[in-house]
């Protein structure tokens, strides 16, 4: 039986990986610097997911380790997790009535091979009333999410349209990951 490890502490990624109906562990990477440039660079995002997976793989070399990182990109500017409620508010004001892109880089390491891929989903927000943005920010929910929203929570109210993988916006393109793992006979 393959030992599968999700190199993440994200409850959403854990929830999504459970859809594979396989046994896995979650072990977060330690000391991996997550800061990205403000200008979007897909190679930099892929490198971050790889560093997360490698950090855990080095401790568990007999396992298959999955690392991932998600960013929201508006007009080629990366919007990671906000550092404060004020920053979360500003991000949501900027996203209001605009199309943006959610990118998730996924890296999988195993002793015989490794691979990475990036999934992109386009999301269009409707006009979000400032009062609603303020109420959402006050819940604290946006503080641990790229772009300051979760499409699976109040972010659903803001979303006018989505083109691509919904689960990618949640932080793990589980269908593509299943396909890649299935093709390599991991699951």
From TrEMBL:
Its cofactor is a divalent metal cation. SUPFAM superfamilies: ITPase-like. It is found in: Cytoplasm. Its EC number is 3.6.1.9. GO terms for molecular function: nucleoside triphosphate diphosphatase activity. This is dTTP/UTP pyrophosphatase. Pfam families: Maf. The record marks 12, 70, 152 as: Important for substrate specificity. Belongs to the Maf family. YhdE subfamily. GO terms for biological process: nucleotide metabolic process. InterPro entries: ITPase-like_fam (IPR029001), Maf-like (IPR003697). It is an enzyme of class 3 (hydrolase). It catalyses: dTTP + H2O = dTMP + diphosphate + H(+); UTP + H2O = UMP + diphosphate + H(+). It comes from Mesotoga infera. It comes from the Bacteria. GO terms for cellular component: cytoplasm.
């Amino acid at each position: 039986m393959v030992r599968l490890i999700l190199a993440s502490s994200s409850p959403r990624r854990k929830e999504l990986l459970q859809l594979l109906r396989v046994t896995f562990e979650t072990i977060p990477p330690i000391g991996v610097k997550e800061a990205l440039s403000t200008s979007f660079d897909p190679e930099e995002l892929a490198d971050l997911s790889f560093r997360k997976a490698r950090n855990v793989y080095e401790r568990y070399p007999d396992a298959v380790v999955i690392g991932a990182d998600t960013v929201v990109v508006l007009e080629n500017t990366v919007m990671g997790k906000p550092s404060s409620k004020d920053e979360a508010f500003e991000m949501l004001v900027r996203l209001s009535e605009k199309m943006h892109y959610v990118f998730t880089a996924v890296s999988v390491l195993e002793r015989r091979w490794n691979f990475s891929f990036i999934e992109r989903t386009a999301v269009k927000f409707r006009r979000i009333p400032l009062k609603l943005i303020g109420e959402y920010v006050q819940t604290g929910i946006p503080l641990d999410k790229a772009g300051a929203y979760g499409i699976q929570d109040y972010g659903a109210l803001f979303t006018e349209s989505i083109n691509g993988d919904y689960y990618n916006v949640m932080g793990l393109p589980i269908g593509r990951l299943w396909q890649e793992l299935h093709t390599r006979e991991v699951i």
